[in-house]
From TrEMBL:
Domain Rhodanese, first and last residues per copy: 32-122
EC number from the UniProt entry: 2.8.1.1
Coiled-coil intervals, chain numbering: none
Pfam families attached to this UniProt entry: Rhodanese (PF00581)
InterPro entries hit by this protein: Rhodanese-like_dom, Rhodanese-like_dom_sf
Annotated keywords: Transferase
Record's keyword annotation contains Transferase: yes
Official protein name in the record: Thiosulfate sulfurtransferase GlpE
Amino acid sequence: MQHNPRFLQLVESVRTNIRECSIADLKLLLEKKSPVLLFDVREDHEWAKGHIPTAKHLGRGIIERDIETLIPDAETEIYLYCGGGFRSALAADTLQKMGYMHVISVDGGFRGWKESGGEIITPSA
């Protein structure tokens, strides 16, 4: 997908303030069977087409509204991914502004996960 210049500028401006991990980092973390709190922040229709196993869905449009109910402890480590790592970077920045201390955006997102051969859960029809 071709992103617009101002959107890219916004994402780049928050990347200096957030933590990111690679797809390889996430795979290693998940392989360790560590309890990993992983949220897919894509739109509902994207989630419905497939997602990373163990991920929970909390779309970018509602994450600020619902995160505190789901995760009241601001010290909890939270991983976020979207389609390519742009929206999750913005969501990570927002959650940090809300006081969450350990938010990590997955650079490469779902697209990177698929390209790396990662397992995908696709809801049955």
